[in-house]
Design brief:
Radius of gyration: 22 Å
CATH superfamily of the largest domain: Glycogen Phosphorylase B
CATH architecture of the largest domain: 3-Layer(aba) Sandwich
Distance between the termini: 19 Å
CATH class of the largest domain: Alpha Beta
Oligomer: single chain
Helix content: 40-55%
Number of helices: 13
Strand content: 15-25%
Strand order of the largest sheet: 9-8-7-10-11-12
């Protein structure tokens, strides 16, 4: 069997996690010492497994088109931006997909009532169930949900900094997740009976209810290779509010940047004021039910299924194998 008949594709999910080890790991793995150089696997005196993969893979994919561009910049490249820029011709961005068998408001077993874009009554029942479960007060303002890994990368520290202002604007907030102790503590201190509910836990059923029962879903990530919750949110008619990075920027269309195609709201500078501006805009949109419903309907019509992503991967694999066959024939 000749290895040169095979082709390899390496997919970057999150470039920050690279797998670095002391140099003496090379002989343990049966790898030659001549790989320990700046152009291949050496990285600040250690062996970097991801760097090695990026050097030798025939194609490199990331989990969104924008992240494919971002990893070639110092801000997002995690020290590997130069290598990725040199290999830009083989780097492709393909969005992750959603399993709509698990994340569909029409069949979700974790929510009290089902609904769809054509029959939205069930969403009100989900909202009422969320209010009751999380001890929120009744009120005219919207509910903002947030679920995820409670980490600085996910921007939950930024969210914590604006929660008091959100409440002052009439919002109610529900936050669920576990993560970094410092961020967990920041969020726990944001809790206000009836107005801000914070659950430091992993709870899949509650995550589904928050997606179904909230009016808006906040994802203020510092960087986000793809993101999935904004895709779940759109499927559940819960408009995402996202920092315009990575897959968040690829998948959400802002209500002011492109009103006719809008599916949510985006802020482009990672500041409290920029996030609050979109929160204010969301509250304004919530007060315009006719326009709000148009955006919700458009969001729910989006198709981010694995069928779409799989076809793109299949095309990439077929093109790569064909180029390998042509190369072998020459």
């Amino acid at each position: 069997m000749h290895l040169d008949l095979f082709a390899t594709v390496l997919t970057i999910h999150n470039l920050a996690y690279q797998g670095t080890f002391p140099p003496d790991v090379l002989p343990v793995l049966g790898l030659p010492w001549d790989l320990f150089n700046l152009e291949q696997m050496e990285f600040y005196g250690k062996v970097n497994f991801l760097k090695g993969g990026l050097c030798f893979a025939d194609r490199i994919t990331t989990v969104s088109p924008r992240y494919a561009r971002e990893v070639m910049t110092p801000l997002f490249g995690c020290g590997l931006e130069g290598l990725l820029a040199r290999r830009a011709g083989v780097v492709h961005g393909i969005l992750n997909g959603v399993d709509y068998g698990e994340w569909s408001p029409a069949s979700d077993p974790f929510i009290p009532a089902h609904f769809s874009a054509d029959a939205m009554a069930g969403k009100a029942a989900c909202r009422a169930a969320l209010v009751e479960k999380m001890g929120l007060s009744d009120g005219p303002g919207p509910i903002f949900g947030a679920v995820g890994r409670l980490a600085a990368q996910k921007g939950f520290d930024l969210l914590a900094s604006v929660v008091p202002e959100m409440v002052a604007l009439g919002a109610r907030v529900v936050i669920l997740g576990t993560g970094e102790a410092l961020v967990e503590d920041m969020l726990a201190r944001c809790a206000i009976p009836g107005k801000v509910a914070v659950r430091i836990a992993y709870d899949n059923a509650l995550a589904h209810l928050i997606e179904a029962g909230s009016d808006f879903f906040v994802m203020p990530s510092r960087y986000e290779p793809c993101g999935l919750n904004q895709l779940y949110s759109m499927a559940y008619g819960t408009l995402p509010i996202v920092h315009a990075v990575g897959g968040l920027d690829d998948t959400v269309v802002d209500v002011d940047e492109d009103p006719d195609q809008a599916t949510g709201l985006k802020f482009r500078t990672f500041t409290a004021e920029a996030l609050l501006d979109r929160v204010r805009r969301a509250i304004s949109l919530y007060g315009d039910p006719e326009r709000l419903q148009k955006v919700i309907s458009r969001a729910m019509a989006q198709d981010y299924s694995w069928d779409v992503a799989a076809r793109k991967y299949l095309t990439l694999y077929e093109e790569l194998l064909e180029s390998r066959r042509v190369g072998q024939a020459q």
